[in-house]
Write a structure and sequence with these properties.
This protein is an alpha/beta fold and 262 residues long. The protein has nine helices and eleven strands. It has helices at 52-56, 64-81, 100-103, 105-113, 134-147, 178-181, 188-204, 216-224, 248-255; strands spanning 6-7, 10-11, 23-31, 36-45, 87-92, 121-125, 150-156, 173-176, 207-210, 229-230, 239-240. Strand 9, helix 8 (216-224) and strand 10 (229-230) form a beta-alpha-beta unit. It is globular.
């Protein structure tokens, strides 16, 4: 990797303000077995509700490092303001981290400023980037674990987040991509693949989260297959600068009973 630009506590790549503003939406991650929200993922949005894609169109190579740092700080600030009680899950760009110990300083300072425990921050490795230096990414994941953070491999099973990454990385969580989850209750080949991944995750000591759950049938099949942690429109859509609630009946529908959450 190119040398880190942090000198005397300041970084020439990251410390300057961005030429545009943005905010965050939050989407809950639930534990169907425990019938509760266990985390909220922070998702980039424009101040007028613009999509993540529209915001990211403004991020060029020169702004990549500043944007990555700004997203982390914004997520912590908003989570604290909203009095979030669950884990905070933040996406990060592997190619925007030069030196893990240096590039985490703004995050650590934001956590201290808002009294946010590091053990309640989970970093999701964004799969949209090709990882050009796997040893560097491994060092990021290992260093973050030593600092008290947990990590997840996002969109697992699609794009760049392929099985061979697990030969080098030891993430705490694998988030199954929507392409594996979609219609899984009636798709035998998807079922076989996911059942294999459940067994693999158990052997590797990783937790699985199913992303993009949109129907009770999908959620029910996944839960019965051993994936209790789930995320998707079925439970709640992302809410800009708010923590959306999950209707208790969503859990009852999955369990097939009338018992309320809690």
């Amino acid at each position: 990797m190119t040398h880190c630009a942090r000198v005397d506590g300041h970084c020439g790549r990251c410390d300057q303000p961005l030429p545009f503003d943005f905010t965050m939406a939050f989407q809950p991650i639930v534990d169907v077995d425990e019938r509760r929200v266990v985390a909220h993922e922070a998702l980039v949005r424009g101040n007028q509700g613009e999509s993540a894609w529209q915001v990211l169109q403004q991020v060029n190579d020169a702004l990549l490092y500043r944007f990555d740092q700004a997203c982390r700080v914004k997520a912590i600030e908003l989570a604290s303001r909203l009095k979030m009680q669950a884990m905070l899950s933040i996406n990060f760009l592997p190619n925007a981290v030069y030196e893990p110990a240096a590039c985490i300083q703004a995050t650590m300072e934001a956590a201290r400023r808002h009294a946010w425990p590091t053990e309640r921050i989970n970093f999701e490795i964004v799969e949209s980037e090709a990882v050009t230096d796997r040893q560097h990414l491994k060092r990021i994941v290992d260093d973050y674990r030593q600092m008290g953070f947990s990590t997840a491999l996002d969109d697992f099973g699609a794009g760049y987040a392929n099985l061979d990454l697990l030969t080098e990385l030891h993430p705490d969580t694998l988030k199954l991509d929507r392409q594996l989850v979609m219609g899984i209750d009636s798709h035998p080949r998807r079922q076989m693949l996911v059942e294999t991944l459940v067994a693999l995750a158990d052997r590797l000591g990783c937790r699985l989260i199913a992303e993009g759950v949109e129907t009770p049938a999908e959620s029910r099949w996944l839960y019965r297959a051993g994936i209790a942690r789930q995320q998707g429109y079925y439970f709640a859509r992302p809410a800009v600068e708010a923590l959306p609630s999950v209707p208790p009946e969503r859990f009852s529908e999955v369990h097939g009973d009338g018992r309320p959450a809690g």
